[in-house]
Inverse folding.
């Protein structure tokens, strides 16, 4: 996820890299899906890729996730994600060492999927978290398309 989050910031610097991305998944607008700031407890638990492990737990404010690199290439990599669900719209705060913290605001939600946006100098950055059974898919993109995705498995 660390590399994934760093690539989110690369999106801002080099948006032309999106041209080669696969066809975008439809983006549900905030107007089409009311945002109520409800719970995101479906994010809870431990999620793994071949290189990363993310542990998420329920807190008084929402859900807190800590991610660490587990492969030789990602050893020492860390990220902290805080999903604050108490307000009208959930907030996602992302903290990665050596990069200023970022705050994303919820713009859409359907079932076990939630989309967050953050304004940048180059436009809008988006993150979408979708759970399907024992898989958690995290996508990054902009207002127009999803550029990359990562899939975690329960574990």
């Amino acid at each position: 996820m660390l590399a994934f989050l760093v690539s989110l910031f690369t999106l801002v610097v080099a948006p032309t890299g999106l041209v080669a991305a696969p066809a975008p998944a439809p983006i549900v607008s905030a107007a089409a899906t009311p945002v109520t700031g409800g719970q995101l407890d479906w994010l809870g638990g431990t999620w793994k890729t071949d290189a990363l492990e993310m542990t998420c737990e329920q807190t008084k404010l929402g859900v807190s996730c800590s991610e660490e690199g587990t492969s030789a290439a990602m050893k020492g990599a860390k990220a902290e994600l805080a999903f604050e669900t108490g307000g009208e719209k959930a907030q996602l705060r992302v903290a990665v060492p050596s990069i200023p913290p970022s705050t994303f605001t919820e713009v859409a939600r359907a079932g076990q999927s939630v989309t967050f946006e953050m304004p940048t100098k180059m436009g809008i950055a988006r993150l979408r978290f979708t759970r399907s059974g024992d898989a958690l898919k995290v996508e990054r993109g902009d207002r127009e398309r999803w550029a990359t995705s990562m899939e975690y498995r329960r574990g």
About this structure: The mean pLDDT is 82. The helical segments are 2-13. The chain is about 10% helix and 50% strand. The longest helix spans residues 2-13.
